UniProtKB/TrEMBL annotation:
CDD domains: RHOD (cd00158)
InterPro entries: GlpE_sulfurtransferase, Rhodanese-like_dom, Rhodanese-like_dom_sf
Source organism superkingdom: Bacteria
Domain Rhodanese: start-end pairs: 27-117
Name of the protein in its database record: Rhodanese-like domain-containing protein
Pfam families reported for this sequence: Rhodanese
Database matches in Gene3D superfamilies: Rhodanese-like domain
Length: 130
């Protein structure tokens, strides 16, 4: 694969936070944003605003919640996390149209884009106390 093929393939499989925000504002009915991060709820309490929360480890059981007629945008923690890539591959194998949000929630928060914080809704006994 030459450099041009690599970059074209990368652009085909990913979307930047800025591009996603612009596209979703223009055509919200075309996209389904999905937080696929695994881990305890208290560490996942901040999500991208209006994202569906379906952890990667629950995808098999929750496929019925994911629309086939929209482009699915998956995200995880950051550029170092491969959970979104695993989720994207799983969904692509099942016929979904999928892109990964580059940089995950870290890049989204760094750009001060809208988030939802559910930490107040988590019961104190659910916290690990770390």
């Amino acid at each position: 694969m030459n450099a041009l093929d690599y970059f074209n393939t990368r652009l085909e499989a990913t979307i930047s936070p800025m591009d996603y925000l612009r596209c979703a504002e223009a055509n919200p009915e075309e996209y389904f944003l999905m937080d696929v991060r695994n881990g305890p709820e208290h560490v996942r309490s901040v999500t991208i605003k209006d994202a569906a929360v379906i952890p990667q480890q629950e995808l098999q059981e929750r496929l019925h919640e994911i629309p086939k007629d929209k482009e699915i945008i998956v995200y995880c923690w950051d550029v170092w996390c491969n959970t979104a890539a695993k989720a994207a591959a799983f969904l692509l194998e099942r016929g979904y149209k999928v892109k990964e949000l580059t940089g995950g929630i870290s890049a989204w928060k760094e750009m001060n884009f809208p988030v939802s914080d559910f930490s107040a809704k988590i019961h104190p006994s659910d916290r690990c106390g770390c």
